[in-house]
Amino acid sequence: MIHLQYWLPGITIGASGSRHHAFCRRLRESITDADIIAIFLLFLGQLPVTMGIFSGRKDPEWVIPGTHPKMVKIQLLLVAAEKAKTFHPKKKMPPRLGYKGFIVVYKNAKRLILGPKTVDLQEALFATRPAGTIPDTIVAEILETIKAGTVLPMKPVRRKRYAPPFNPAPYMFDDVREDNNCYNYANIRITDTYAQPGRGAGALFIALTGAAVQAGAIADGLAVVANGNFPVGPRHVVALVIWPGKCKSHLVIHNSTIFSHAIVINF
Question: Lowest CB count within 10 Å: 74, 155, 244, 246, which one?
């Protein structure tokens, strides 16, 4: 067992007073030689991070270098999270607009980090984001959401699958999901370009508003449906959900009653 009292108290864990000392004591009691080696190796290396926040837009990604001032703190919190079993599989990222947690590559595996038990770790990861990663107007909102700890992993859902014409199979592969989004899924077209409304027609939307995104979709060939007059034949219904000024999402209706989304098709 390696004792950490000579260097651990010099690290700010994101807590103070008795809470801080209790955390340090638990960590000293549980950390192993292997954990120390992992911390050292990560300090020499880097940590890839993805913040789940957008839907139709690519989620922000960055790499925390081993020399970053917060790297040791983050590594200690990662060790604590692993021991407490508060990591989640990537596929459990919740299907919601807005903040959805962090994905880090830790010990050669992608780990989803969210929820009330890893608030300190999420705050530390959020603090390492490069300038301009997300709009300044939503920084306070995201930080408040992280502190609240109310974003939880997706729970398994058991329900009847309305198959025709529901066909999620092409989107079950990681390489497809990484380069295609809900707009691809809604249009049943895999382009590997993270498609955006209007871009293919040379009329990319210029603002994240319902009217602007709808205009881009119409330029791509989609048609507005009024008063529930859904089309018949090979065409299908797509719904647009907007987080004004921040994000958008498209959903597909199946059998006139069930909506599905590119994020939640992998039950």
Answer: 155
